[in-house]
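Entry 14. Ran structure prediction on the chain below.
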Amino acid sequence: MITGTRKRKDGTTETFEVDLSAGEDLMSALRKHGIYLDAPCSGRGLCGRCRVRFAEGAPDPVETERRFLTREELTAGVRLACATVPRGDCRIELPDEGQEEIAALSGGEGPAGAGKCAGGRPASPHGIAVDLGTTTLAMALVETATGSVLKTVTGVNHQRAFGADVISRIQAANEGGGELLRQSILRDLKQMAARLLAKTHTPPETVGRIVIAGNTTMCHLLRGLSCETLGVWPFIPVDLSMWRGTYRELFCLPDAGDSGMELPDIPAEVVILPGISAFVGGDIVAGLYGCGLHRKKETSFYLDIGTNGEMAVGNSSEILVTSAAAGPVFEGGNLSCGVPGIPGAISHVTISGQEKEFGTLSWKRAEAGGKRVGPGGTGTAAICVEPGGTGAAAIYETIGGREPVGLCGSGVTDLLSGLVRAGIVDENGELSEPWAQEGFPVVSEQIRFTQRDIREIQMGKSAIRAGIETLAAEYAARSAIPAVSAASVPFYLAGGFGYALDVPNAVQIGLLPEWCSEKICLCGNSSLTGAVRWLCAEGAEKEVKDIVEKAVEISLALHPRFQELYLEHMFF
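Output, structure tokens:
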């Protein structure tokens, strides 16, 4: 028997008990009891993030744990849940729930349009819009008569315990974990709905409709559909159409675990917005609807960099769409120092030289003199000084002004851009000495930016950049126009990463083309915005259907120019 504790966000401590089968690893046992730890590698022992502390009964560490944990951590009873197999009764401590807070974009509050509800019947007093992301979740309570967003809440998608990206989730579902994945997201959504209604003192019976926008994999897992054909060529979804049902049909779990709150039974209709393909889902359809790309006569480009890079280009006549398999690097996944947008995530970085003489390689922590790199941060400098030479200072900000815990996507982009400008990373992506082996220390020895991290970012940014140029060229050829460029194309950059992104730095590392920066529009959580508008606008269902019908998917894997461009943009 495993007993354990975890501190909740409200400061109280949750106590739990977990049965353990013979030979079962700790992570599998916790998952079966609805307890989820962050595991971007899906528990394969590749990321070292699923840390727990054994207060009693700690098993001997295995090689995987020795690779990721310091001697001090091992002595203190810290282990990796995916690698450790308890041999008897034990007591564990899990990371605080407060560490799971996430600075996801909510889409804002206030007017979002008005009118009859999308179905054409008189609107109920309230509706709920949901952005179902791979990493983050956002939910808005909407006053349907006025179109005003009354309140939003955001949170982590605890399916991260099964992997950071959709491919990991598909694999987990196909290996028998589909129901556990479904239970995880249903718990998250029910608990978020409870928080939303409690914060606004809204009776559940006043909510007439819930609309959900999510990528194709997330919607399959939510509905309990098979993912067997999603992860293999030719990537065929079970169902891309709009789904309608009731709250009780979809949220059929008897409870949502020990959440410490009474969970609502909402007598509402639920709508899941339709998708276009296996990798261009209802979240992008909602985003395009929210931006109004399908209504414009002028051509526009749309890019949402999340766990992957989904993009579209077009106007009221035709829309081309595609998805670049960039992986989760710009949401903190697959990086040794990467974290999502949680409090303490380094969100902005600058690199500067410091001329000081030291006899040995040393560290100095200093205040950055009030220098402000970006919104809401710390302004702390960690200065690494080479023997008798030039020091490289990483001046950084963290989300919420908290102590640094890692780098989120915008911080990674800033850091890499600064290292390239300073000549610490060359055009091939190689770290120079003395950092090539151990990585560039951003925060003393605590957070290092390694050569492997740079390679992951190179692959991610090259996929997105090559996707942009391939789609733009394909559209130009089909539309008989000279080129898709800044002179003619507004560029909508969506998502939390895009909203926090320093565009010149993104251009510097080759993530975005130079032409996009002249007419760029940061549109935030366009998926949630589109879902909110769908709740309130007359004719929304027809418009969404129009987007799906107009959309033509371009397969990058089969495109003759994509691979060439992908290799070209690996350089800095």
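The first strand starts at residue 2 and ends at 7. Will compare against last week's run tomorrow.
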